[in-house]
Amino acid sequence: MTFEGLGIDARLIQATDELGYVNPTAIQEQAIPVLLSGTKDFIGLAQTGTGKTAAFGIPLLQLIDAAAKYPQALVVCPTRELCLQIVKEIELFKKYLPSISVVAVYGGASIGLQIRDLKRGTQIVVATPGRLIDLIERKAINLEQISYVVLDEADEMLNMGFKEDIEFILQNTPKRESTWLFSATMPPEIRKVSKRYMKDPVEVTVGKVNMANKSIDHQYYVTTAHHRYETLKRIIDFNPGIYGIIFTRTKLDAQEISERLTREGYDIDALHGDLTQAQRDKVMGQFRDKSLQLLIATDVAARGIDVQGITHVINYELPDDVEVYTHRSGRTGRAGNQGISIAIVHSKEMFKLKQIERINNSKFNKLDIPSGKDVCRKQFFHFMDKLLSADISHGDYETYVPMLAEKFADVSKEEVLKRVAAMEFDRFLKYYENSEDLNVRERDRSDRGKNDFNKKGSRNDAYGAGKNEFRSKGGGGYSRLFVNLGTKDGFYKSSFLQFILDMSDLKKEVLGRIDMKDMNSWIEIDKGAAKQMIRSLDGKNYKGRRIRMNDAETGGGRKPRRGEE
Ligand code: AMP
Q1: Which residues form the Helicase C-terminal domain (predicted)?
Q2: What are phi and psi of 481, to 5 degrees?
Q3: Of all protein residues, whose CA lies closest to atom 13 belonging to ligand 1?
Q4: Ligand 1 centroid to 371 CA: how many Å?
Q5: Terminus of the chain with fewer CB atoms < 10 Å: N or C?
Q6: Angle formed at CA 496 by CA 490 and CA 501, multiple of 5 degrees
Q7: What are phi and psi of 549, to 5 degrees?
Q8: 25 lines ligand 1 (CB under 6 A)
Q9: CA gyration radius, the chain
């Protein structure tokens, strides 16, 4: 098939010839004749890179009235980059149609200049939704005579939270005769929009079409409300190369978490409704050029923001609305990249995950909140990779090598590496030295129903007793250890168990009965493992307090008072 065979005007063919287009692409072949024939509504399911700009751009140029100097065609697309790209291509196609003008209007640039461009008289306007609505509200654009509306990358626009904006635009084009919708995927939301605003559209599909965005891995972590912030930190620290957006439900949360994380040394800023446009632009600018690694935002404040290369979206709390979750997660996994959308949930929110899975036809993967050790290991490997891939081609290092060699003459390579690592990791090692397990496990939940460890005077059974786990083995080969840590230190039995096992590198099989009190606990342990446990914990710090652990029978540890056991 040739371009001539599609019914295209000679002047447009000449331009495509000069661009080196020999044959039309599949979407062009299927769309162009249909659109030129006067078909009113059209749906083209095609990915980026299939030549869809020409598929709608060429028919638009041919169909509009070049002599009339008012906007007749409106192309709406999700991002500023795409907006500029579409205009650039249309400019090339219209090389031999000089009386046609095309103008780009998009956010983040001077609205004054764009208004001036529009005033000059243009037939085709290519716009991002937010800026277009701004122009409509200022009455700076006349949509009265728009006959053609093209929605390009409609799924992306919906993912970015532009659904209402698009509907508003469609409702504000009273003379709209044709609506052409292009999308890489066909989620139910797009179907709804097409049903509502289009009449018997001709539908054309090129390549495979996904129902949902499969390039996003949906993950969740279960913790307590109390540990939400710590969990967030763990997730960030566990992903050293993260470039992400954190979503909160409230402005106050966004502000507070941002301030707290900044104080703790993270590259983060908040985007919320109280910022002036200038402040907002500044934050967005920094995030876009990656001088900010993390952005924390409320849903309203994040509307329409479009940044390439987001690796993670974190739901600090899940939204009530499934659609909002879809918009949030749609910020990642774009343009063919893989992305991760994380939800921090507590056990009572599981139903929300199920609801999202059902409606979006997606699946959440449950992950364990990484332990302090996991985080440190991950940071360590990341750093080593960074070290090995550091660019040393530019500095004048050779000049200093003899001096370095002399200075390090007596220091082994291992020691240098250790020292470099120590410099980089001090913060993590110190912070995670005695970190606790933040996961809420099935066991914790059923345990808590039976015992409220935080309530004074409540009766504390041995860990898991009644379920035949860690039940006292009756003395035998057991030692009984005392430790000055208890529920007041924020431990539940399972997190305490995890903590002492992590610290000592022992297996849980060596443990017998564990009795926890507010300030102290007693641990039954295989006689052979007792020493290792004491050695690993005694004298260490936990949250700034020195841990004291010894043999309760011989080592002077306070024995439980009567009634405490
Ligand atoms: P698009 O999907 O519109 O972003 O187009 C992807 C790329 O393919 C652009 O760089 C176009 O210039 C190019 N292109 C579009 N149509 C053709 C064609 N028929 N032959 C060769 N290249 C094309």
Answers
A1: 231-375
A2: -105, 145
A3: 51
A4: 49
A5: C
A6: 150
A7: -135, 135
A8: yes
A9: 31
Residue 560 lies in a domain: no
Ligand 1 atom 5 nearest Cα: 51
Cα of 82 from ligand 1 centre, angstroms: 14
- Give me the percent of the chain exceeding a pLDDT of 70: 90
Classify residue 456: in a domain, yes or no.
yes
CA 3 to ligand 1: nearest atom: 19
State which of 153, 186, 205 marks the end of a domain: 205
pLDDT band of 209, cuts 50, 70, 90: low
Extended beta strands in 346-451, E state: 364-366
Query: Which atom of ligand 1 approaches the CA of 89 most closely?
Result: 12
**Does ligand 1 have an atom closer than 6 angstroms to the CB of 21?**
yes
Whether 54 is in the pocket of ligand 1, judged by its Cβ within 6 Å, is yes
> Do 409 and 452 lie in a common domain?
no
Which residues in 235-330 belong to E strands, given as ranges?
Answer: 244-248, 268-271, 294-298, 312-315
**pLDDT tens digits, 138-178:** 899 999 999 999 999 998 888 766 787 899 899 999 999 99
Residues 253 and 353 in one domain: yes
User: In this structure, what CATH number is given to the domain that contains residue 292?
Assistant: 3.40.50.300
Full domain range(s) for residue 390: 372-432
81 vs 247: CA distance, rounded Å: 24
Does ligand 1 come within 6 angstroms of the Cβ of 81?
no
Give the position of tokens 């949930």.
345
The reported pTM is 0.52
Together in a domain, 361 and 388: no
Choose one of 366, 389, 416: the last residue of a domain.
Answer: 366
